[in-house]
Amino acid sequence: MSTAILTGPPVAGSPLEADLRTLGFDVRTANDPAAAAELINAVPAQERVAVVDPRFVGHLHALRLALTDPRFPAAAVPGALTAQPAARAALARAVSRIPVGAGTAHLTDVLTDTLTESLDRDEAGLHRVELGSLVATVALTPAQREDAREAVAAVDDEAVRLRTAVKSRDGFFTTYGISPYSRYLARWCARRGLTPNQVTTASLLTALIAAGCAATGTRGGFVAAGFLLLFSFVLDCTDGQLARYSLQYSTMGAWLDATFDRAKEYAYYAGLALGAARGGDDVWALALGAMVLMTCRHVVDFSFNEANHDATANTSPTAALSGKLDSVGWTVWVRRMIVLPIGERWAMIAVLTALTTPRIVFYALLIGCALAACYTTAGRVLRSLTLPRLSPGGPPARRTDRAAQALADLADSGPLAELIAGSARGRGRTGSFLAPVMAFLSAAVLLVWVLAEDDPTSWLTVGVAVCSALLAGAAVARPLKGALDWLVPPFFRAGEYVTILVLAARVDVPGALPAAFGLVAAVAYHHYDTVYRIRGGTGAPPRWLVRATGGHEGRILVITVLAAALSPSGFTIALTALAVALALLVLIESIRFWVSSQAPAVHDEGEPA
């Protein structure tokens, strides 16, 4: 139970107390700041406290946004504020600092505004709610109260609540093909007490059933799979809209929403590959290629965003052109569709599954995602060559220590690369192009060898893998603060994933590619988990986990040794065992972390990839 303290002149007939109880607050009253301070201190430290002026007039949803959003330590609108446990001490200090006696009326007449300003000065993480068309005010006179009530009546706060439940920036298909009705499904779920996590789980189960239908290899199964995949995406949109509609944000929800999207898509790829195999068509290499391409593309997005996390402006010609194009409405949608976001991608997969064959689905997916990856990566490289600025007109920004650490964590370097980096530390210049060049060579040397060599499953490949590890260690020997250092993690991911794909394809035995698919899926999960830990503000996975998984260079070395030392069938068994071991290791640690995590409650509002 949360506690709301009404402090100020009482207003007869006000629905405020009923509204607060509707929002789950235990309502108490205080006649002066001293009494309010006593009530605040009497509330258990682990509970939320709200302070509300009895003269408040506004929409119920304005109160809901100010008093119940779990993402912020403190939040406020005119006439109402709240403090979660993290900001309770700051609120108590703010109340205790208010003087009593003559000459203090300007501080106590609207006590909530005084406390809001004090929390703002104390940097207690105060969030001032953007109300838009909603009304929230303190009516000091009967005339003001009447005017405020008329303003409240003129705006339908339920319509506003539904509209703002939809993500502000989304793809064309999601915006016009899903959200117009999924928001009502979100409201239906809210009124029946369903949580976003339950809807997210339902979306995962629906996608897994779709993958099972695709695995039947029949036309009826493919048609059913297409419909179920689309319905899974409807539920995927609904869970976020439900979170925004009912303000049920949580760390667990953000993790489930992010990781389940990838699990659904990659499980569906596997279902399509199994279905094709039933019809005599082996498309496992295409399925694995699609997963590799999608994961590498996401790593590009994540690395670029983390590298520029602390920058607020960019003055490159590419950024200027993008800003000009934003003023031409249709170009915004074209550019959002070019990157093939999740809505357009899943719609394409669903339709092609129902109407064509798995091979055609994967060809279309690979071509579309490759073009999207080239478009986004080229634009980001051009932007990076002119460094972002910390403020418009300000000096060029340097990569911060936080950004450099995030890129180092995303690189996923293991013990071998750490040892090499330690011996190479001090050589080269921070901010140069040495790191991305070394990372590129690390991946390129290995990939050119395994692609061009007649028999890449030899001990010579192990030697090349050692050379690749040396280059990888050199790439991370200095802080990743250069303009293009965000390319280091994508180069490492491409080198690792494609090497696994090529070696499994070249052994040419049944089961090798499915085993490689499972291994890459397990490693990719580890990399996505790293991303969302960093985004949640909790930092990367513990070093013991990274070392236990070997790091990217360690896994490559182990896989090349297994390929050289074992027969093709033995290599397949080894890949399967390695996939199971890695999956168990990263899943157990990930679940343990997210279930017990104290990370801030968030919900992903990022790019619709």
What share of residues are in beta strands?
5-15%
In DSSP terms (H or I, runs of 4 or more residues), the helix count works out at: 26
Q: Strand pairing plus helix content: what structural class?
A: mainly alpha
The first-to-last residue Cα distance is 38 Å
What coarse outline follows from CA principal-axis ratios?
A: elongated
> What's the rounded overall pLDDT mean?
87
Supply Rg: 28 Å
The largest β sheet comes out as:
6 strands, mixed
Care to count the β-strands? Answer: 8
Helix percent reads 55-70%
Low-confidence sequence ranges: 603-609
Strand order of the largest sheet: 2-1-3-6-5-7
Which descriptors would you attach to this protein?
8 strands, 67% helix, mainly alpha, 609 residues, single chain, 26 helices, 5% strand, disordered C terminus
Account of the 3D structure:
- α11 packs antiparallel against α16, α20 (434-452) runs antiparallel to α21 (459-475) and α22 (488-507) runs parallel beside α25 (551-565).
- The longest helix has 29 residues, at 568-596.
- A hairpin with a 2-residue loop joins β5 and β6.
- This protein has a 6-stranded mixed sheet with strand order 2-1-3-6-5-7, sandwiched between helices.
- It is elongated.
- The protein has 26 helices and 8 strands.
- With 609 residues, the protein is mainly alpha-helical.
- Helices cover 67% and strands 5% of the residues.
